[in-house]
Write a structure and sequence with these properties.
- The protein is an alpha/beta fold and 175 residues long.
- The chain is built from five helices and seven strands; from the N terminus they run αβαβααβββββα.
- The chain has a seven-stranded mixed beta sheet with strand order 1-7-6-5-2-3-4, with helices on both faces.
- Helix 1 packs antiparallel against helix 5.
Length: 175
């Protein structure tokens, strides 16, 4: 397994989609994150979703949103430095260290036969700047999303999701 310290979701996407790069400040990145999360919710996808928001304290304000996502998602993986103690059920927190490249990144990723999205950004804030800035990529390309999911699963020894159709779980009652 490659070093987790150097692994970058942004570089996985940038390699495949170099023309679709944007620059944005943190409020715009939050807006795009919510856009991607709302797509997941609206489609009621039953696949894994991967979220990297640098620090667990950045996840706390959106806990209610992700609790709703977790109701249909197969698993919700949260990649972050654990800088605060909180109940993380039903999420699977992947703890990061300050040396990990992913601490400099912000991402929301899911790949499903019905719908796929990758929002991935890397922080570019210069030292001493008062406004946080990011370069990023937003794509709905199913091939790129599947590639990123495979790389995350391989890098962190996560089991890949078995894609499930959207909608309510099947009724297993004998009839």
């Amino acid at each position: 397994m490659a070093s987790q310290t150097r692994f970058s979701v942004f570089k996985q996407v940038q390699t495949h989609n170099p023309r679709n790069i944007f620059s944005a400040e943190r409020p715009r990145l939050i807006h795009w994150s919510h856009y991607v999360e709302q797509i997941f919710l609206a489609q009621q996808l039953r696949t894994d979703i991967y979220v990297g928001l640098q620090y667990l304290s950045n996840f706390a304000p959106i806990l209610p949103l992700y609790s709703r996502i977790a109701q249909t998602a197969r698993r919700v993986y949260v990649f972050a430095i654990v800088d605060l103690q909180m109940d993380t059920q039903p999420f699977q927190v992947i703890p990061l260290t300050p040396q990990d490249q992913l601490v400099k990144e912000w991402f929301v990723v899911f790949a499903d036969p019905q719908e796929s999205r990758v929002l991935s950004a890397i922080e570019t804030t210069p030292p001493g700047a008062s406004t946080r800035t990011f370069d990023g990529v937003l794509t709905s390309d199913a091939g790129i999303a599947a590639h990123v999911v495979r790389q995350i699963n391989r890098q962190f020894d996560l089991s890949p999701a078995e894609h499930k159709s959207a909608g309510p779980p099947p009724d297993n009652a004998a009839g």
